[in-house]
Design a protein that fits this description.
Length: about 625
């Protein structure tokens, strides 16, 4: 990306020159291997001088009727909002010629809003369908928005907008923009679009704050999306820095010190969260007390590094009071879990409410005596709780904590910014958390495992160091064991030889014609591998199970050198089944598998847009 600070711009008439001078041309916007996703930078020369002036006027109008940090759906019956949407897309290079269905869908939404009789202004509440909820949901938000308070480089602003939707979308467009509070551009518009995806998208813009004398900044993001829920859009903006009309020295904030969540066991650069399972060797956090939900401990601190600044105790107290009373009408940050493969996100709650709440976070914060250190402690009984539906087992999840931090100085000049902690790489932001994965899968108690010595033992009796029989090597070492519970009905299989096995739906088993298959995908007639050879399944059924479930990981590093793919297997009641390592592999594959032929799964209405996007040079 071209850096903005190489340009010196004087006066507001330079806006167009600024944006065209620092952005890529349409030719530069092509991506090397176009599959589903394209990214680019806006180019203001795509708008005429008159269109640019109208776009700025419409944007000021929109910011006058909407509130910062409150997401809205645009009222396309309002001429100003409809013009704004079209101009925003045109800045990104989207036109009716190269994106015909996108603009057809926008026009259809425009006609619907007109037919519904919406007057200019915001849509009525029932037209917004954006009420806060703790359940898994579609998300459009800012991951980060700051003026570089955590960097040493002067005049360095950054914004990242994120988008996700449960199950994905047919099409998603999301952008991010950074201006001063008057709308004067400090960055190029950054945009991303994806066909037959939408599970996890981000758009990031970097800003040169030296292009304005003002100390208050505004970031904005616009999104259009088509999914099973229909064609919708949304818009969000946020402001930070000094109060309007004032300036002050930018505060400095240290990198966060993280005490939780951390990699506590193997130091393998991975935080392993065991959902209803306790791996004895590599489970960093055990969630067996919350059968379906994810509960995550968080603890850390940040420090102000500029001598003249302290955290604003009065404002922090106001945050706590207003949140407790349910009256907060401003941004206090968010704590969110995003399912990067399945799509959708969950905001933190207290486990008893249907609405997302940040009150529990702020109630567990504290300031040092000198008000230079801000800390939080959500551990033990106070660990962050996410809704039952927000789990993505056997794969990584994205955890983001965005903390709005109010600051003041000796002259009582206030300043507000935010600090973002995440396990995802963002521009100008190093990862704060290590990668996080959620894992489970098991066999029912009483399942007999073949040992190397020729005997069998119930799976619950196995321990690290035991040796089990393996069809590819004389024996393998048990490296780890897990115990847990299962709330989903388990899969019962029975072979023509009379063997029977009860396992969780995600446990892998060797099928002759298909290789490793999750138990939930088995069907009557499948031929599976057993100790005695191939055997046909005569029964595949589901049954509730209230007992404990168990799993093992087998094969030392040395032993695995002699094995091929998917060979860390054991005999369970005589069936060849995968261990915990194989199970994780296939769950991850199942969640990320996409047909490489996008047009094979993309609805026909989007085919032309996709083909034209792929041809952009």
């Amino acid at each position: 990306m071209f850096r903005m600070r190489r340009f010196l711009v004087m006066g507001s008439t330079a806006c167009l020159a600024l944006l065209s001078g620092c952005t890529s041309t349409p030719r530069e916007e092509q991506i090397a291997n176009f599959g589903r996703t394209a990214r680019g930078l806006g180019d203001a020369t795509r708008l005429t001088q008159k269109e640019w002036a109208t776009y700025q006027d419409d944007q000021r109008y929109l910011h006058g009727i909407a509130r910062p940090d409150v997401r809205i759906r645009l009222n396309l019956a309002d001429p100003a909002q409809y013009r704004f949407a079209l101009a925003r897309l045109k800045l990104a290079g989207k036109t009716p010629q190269n994106s015909p269905y996108l603009f057809e869908a926008l026009e259809q939404r425009h006609r619907e809003h007109v037919a519904q009789g919406h007057a200019p202004g915001l849509l009525p509440p029932e037209g917004r369908d954006l009420a806060p909820s703790a359940e898994i949901k579609e998300v459009h938000a800012f991951d980060q928005a700051n003026a570089g308070e955590g960097t040493k480089e002067a005049n360095d602003g950054s914004v990242t907008a994120t988008s996700t939707i449960p199950g994905g979308s047919y099409y998603t467009y999301t952008d991010a923009n950074f201006t001063d509070v008057t709308g004067y551009p400090l960055s190029a518009l950054a945009w991303v679009e994806e066909f037959d995806g939408g599970e996890h998208l981000t758009a990031s813009a970097e800003a040169n704050l030296a292009l304005t004398r003002l100390g208050r900044y505004r970031v904005s993001t616009y999104k259009v999306e088509d999914s099973e829920d229909g064609f919708k859009d949304s818009y969000l903006f946020s402001e930070f820095g000094t109060p309007p009309g004032t300036t002050s020295i930018r505060p400095g904030v240290s990198p966060a010190t993280i005490y939780a969540p951390v990699d506590t066991v193997l130091n393998d650069n991975l935080i392993s969260v065991c959902l209803n399972r306790t791996w004895t060797q590599d489970c960093d956090y055990d969630l067996t007390g919350t059968p379906q939900a994810i509960k995550m401990p968080l603890k850390g601190e940040i420090v102000l590094t500029t001598p003249e600044h302290v955290f604003d105790q009065a404002k922090i107290n106001q945050f706590k009071t207003d949140l407790a009373a349910g009256m907060a009408t401003y941004d206090v940050g968010h704590l969110r879990l995003i399912l990067t493969n399945a799509g959708g996100g969950c905001d933190v709650t207290d486990g008893n409410l249907i609405e997302a709440k940040m009150g529990q976070f702020w109630n567990r914060t504290a300031l040092s005596a000198d008000k230079k250190t801000f800390s939080w402690d959500l551990t033990g009984a106070y660990a962050a709780f996410f809704d039952d539906g927000c789990r993505q087992v056997q794969d990584d999840v994205k955890l983001t904590l965005k903390i709005v931090i109010p600051i003041t100085d000796a002259n009582n000049l206030t300043y507000q910014t935010s600090v973002t902690l995440t396990n995802e790489d963002l521009p100008r932001l190093a990862k704060s958390f290590k990668p996080i994965t959620v894992t489970n899968s098991c066999l029912a108690a009483g399942t007999e495992i073949e040992l190397a010595a020729g005997k069998t033992a119930p799976v619950e009796a196995l321990k690290a160091g035991d040796r089990v029989l393996n069809p590819h090597q004389p024996s393998l070492t048990v490296m780890d064991t897990a115990i847990g519970t299962e709330t989903v009905p388990m899969v019962r299989i029975r072979s023509e030889a009379g063997r029977s096995l009860l396992m969780t739906e995600m446990h892998p088993i060797q099928v002759m014609a298909r290789g490793m298959v999750q138990a939930r995908a088995l069907k009557k007639g499948d031929v599976v591998l057993t100790k005695a050879g191939p055997s046909k399944l005569v029964e595949v059924s589901r049954e509730p199970y209230a007992g404990k479930v168990y799993n093992v990981k087998v094969g030392s590093d040395t032993e695995k050198l002699a094995l091929g793919a998917d060979q860390t297997v054991v005999y369970a009641n005589g069936f060849v089944v995968g261990d915990g390592q194989i199970q994780r592999k296939y769950e991850s594959i199942a969640m990320t598998r996409k047909n490489p032929n996008v047009l094979a799964t993309l609805p026909g209405k989007w085919h032309r847009d996709y083909q034209l996007a792929a041809r952009r040079k």
